[in-house]
Write a structure and sequence with these properties.
heterotrimer; A mainly alpha; B alpha+beta; C mainly alpha; B: alpha+beta; 5 strands; 25% strand; C: globular
């Protein structure tokens, strides 16, 4: 039905969730000070976004729609996401304790990552099939990852520069993000 | 036993709030339907001023002085940013009366220009044969917003065919 | 109880400038940059946000003694999501246009860092009056931030302001780049630098 490739490209680059749609910003500016953390965050977001897209599709089709309780979608989706993150946390704590010690504090941040809830809501609004939902979840989250890794790389370099004091750290991050967003606008014509 | 209290608390919270939401939903349901219907009627009135409507099978038939002036059809189409809902007013002679975009998700400033009167007004009085981009037809797409323009064109074409 | 009265005023006022949730603590950015293209939408967003924040802080403060620590985040999140759903239903019933303008950002209030942040850090530990004061202050701070940014972006981007049916235009050659995403980021960066320079943050 829908063209899966176009969904992939669209949500990854053209309509990048952070730089074009402004979703997922809180963690974006908070974590992008450090490149390694940003990469880990991006991967974690990708995992949770894709898997929650899968689960929420089933929730839509076998729970919300048959019972006509679509208005419960916000509560249902966020419970799915929170549960997933909790699951990841438990697994991480048991199997990779050192990893967990380093990155564990970021896990709650993933629950409130706007991008993940947004993707699930979009899958619902657009009435995507299971395949399309998965592709959308994956593509959107990868778009987030690209955006955050790009910004983090630049910010790390900038931290060695001698910027005017009032621009240091956060203000310049916004300006860089603005320039990245400008660059991504260039994708706007692709695909016709 | 230690697990029981938290699980119980969470389950209770979900049940309580689920019930509250169900209640709020029930009391707002009709108001929501009416508000959305009013929005649609406002749009239709823009295309067919001074008419009275009757709805049948989601098509709005517009009467003026007991004469059928035309009809308004709502069409869904796939735009650049997702689903667009387009309202097409059709004259009795099957030409386009007017086009309005009810909802869209196009990029502001680029694709959204295809939802503005400056683009939509060119559909007025066009017949089925003229519904194509120039030079085959009479419709001029917006530069840089081809997909959005095409989506609207498709919507209007579909409205004339099946409406 | 009497000695807590002056504290209430401080709790409410700190949200406006000193601990402004957006400019100082940098929370709640998502709706902030997306909805700040028009003053009207910004006001609508502030009202919706305020309703959710006030409702949630009130409830969590009331039940704070009965919330088991291990499961508190999911419980808070369900309460927040419920208030957001209620807000969405009310907005759809009384202003479908606002619902359309806010788009996906209305449901996204659920994961707005400000709400969960205040609940976790404050209203789940303090009295009802203090929590409400804090919520009012935070809403005011959020509103101040989003409306002022919208004012700048709408003015520069469209040349005028549209306000509940009244509109006035200043100039006819607007720079519509401000309405797009790069403009939003740049304006925010500029404002933050300015505030930093002025010593506010």
């Amino acid at each position: 039905m829908e063209n899966l490739l176009s969904i992939l490209l669209f949500n990854l680059l053209i309509n990048n969730i952070v730089l074009t749609r402004f979703i997922g910003l809180c963690s974006y500016f908070g974590i992008s000070r450090n490149l390694r953390n940003s990469t880990m965050m991006g991967l974690a977001v990708t995992f949770v976004a894709t898997s929650s897209s899968l689960v929420t599709w089933f929730v839509n089709h076998y729970l919300l729609t048959p019972f006509g309780i679509q208005y419960m979608r916000i509560v249902a989706f966020i419970l799915v996401i929170a549960s997933f993150v909790q699951l990841v946390e438990i697994i991480m704590r048991k199997t990779m304790p050192k990893f967990y010690a380093a990155f564990g504090i970021y896990l709650p941040l993933i629950t409130v990552n706007c991008a993940i809830l947004a993707v699930n809501l979009i899958n619902f609004d657009e009435n995507y099939s299971l395949a399309a939902s998965l592709v959308n979840g994956l593509a959107t989250a990868l778009g987030y990852t690209i955006a955050i890794v790009l910004l983090a790389g630049i910010r790390e370099r900038l931290s060695y520069e001698d910027l005017p004091r009032s621009f240091r750290d956060v203000p310049v991050a916004f300006i860089v993000a603005g320039l990245l967003a400008l660059a991504f606008q260039g994708f706007a014509g692709i695909g016709g | 036993m230690k697990i029981l209290k938290p699980v119980l608390a969470l389950t209770l919270t979900c049940i309580v709030w689920g019930l509250i939401l169900g209640y709020v939903h029930r009391i707002t349901e009709s108001k929501i339907a009416e508000a959305e219907r009013k929005e649609r009627e406002k749009m239709i009135a823009e295309i067919f001023p001074g008419c009275s409507f009757e709805e049948e099978n989601s098509i709005f038939y517009c009467f003026q002085n007991n004469r059928l002036v035309g009809k308004a059809v709502e069409v869904e189409t796939k735009g650049y940013g997702g689903t667009m809902r387009v309202l097409v007013g059709i004259n009795a002679d099957n030409t386009v009366r007017g086009v309005r975009v009810l909802s869209h998700n196009e990029t502001r400033g680029i694709g959204s220009r295809a939802t503005e009167p400056s683009f939509l007004s060119q559909f007025e009085n066009l017949g089925k044969e003229q519904l194509a981009f120039k030079p085959q037809g009479q419709v001029e797409a917006i530069t840089g917003a081809t997909i959005s323009s095409r989506a609207i064109l498709e919507a209007v074409k579909r409205a004339l065919e099946y409406g | 109880m009497a000695e807590e009265k002056p504290n209430l005023r401080w709790e409410a006022e700190k949200g406006l400038l000193k601990k402004n949730p957006v400019f100082v603590i940098l929370l709640g950015l998502c709706p902030f940059l997306a909805i700040s293209k028009s003053v009207e939408d910004a006001i609508g967003m502030t009202l919706a946000f305020g309703f959710v924040l006030l409702g949630t802080c009130l409830v969590t403060s009331l039940i704070r003694r009965w919330v088991p620590r291990d499961v508190r985040i999911p419980m808070f999140v369900v309460i927040i999501a419920s208030f957001v759903t209620i807000t969405e239903l009310i907005v759809r019933a009384y202003s479908p246009t606002l619902r359309e303008h806010l788009g996906i950002f209305l449901p996204l209030i659920t994961v707005n860092c400000i709400v969960l942040g205040r609940v976790e850090a404050f209203s789940s530990k303090r009295s009802v009056l203090e929590s409400l004061a804090d919520a009012i202050g935070m809403t005011a701070g959020f509103g101040l931030a989003i409306i002022s940014i919208s004012f700048i972006r709408e003015l520069l981007g469209t040349g005028g302001i549209k306000f509940f049916g009244y509109s006035f235009t200043i100039f006819g050659q607007p720079a519509s780049g401000f309405l797009l995403s790069p403009g939003g980021f740049l304006v925010m960066g500029g404002i933050l630098a300015l505030l930093k320079k002025l010593g506010v943050i």
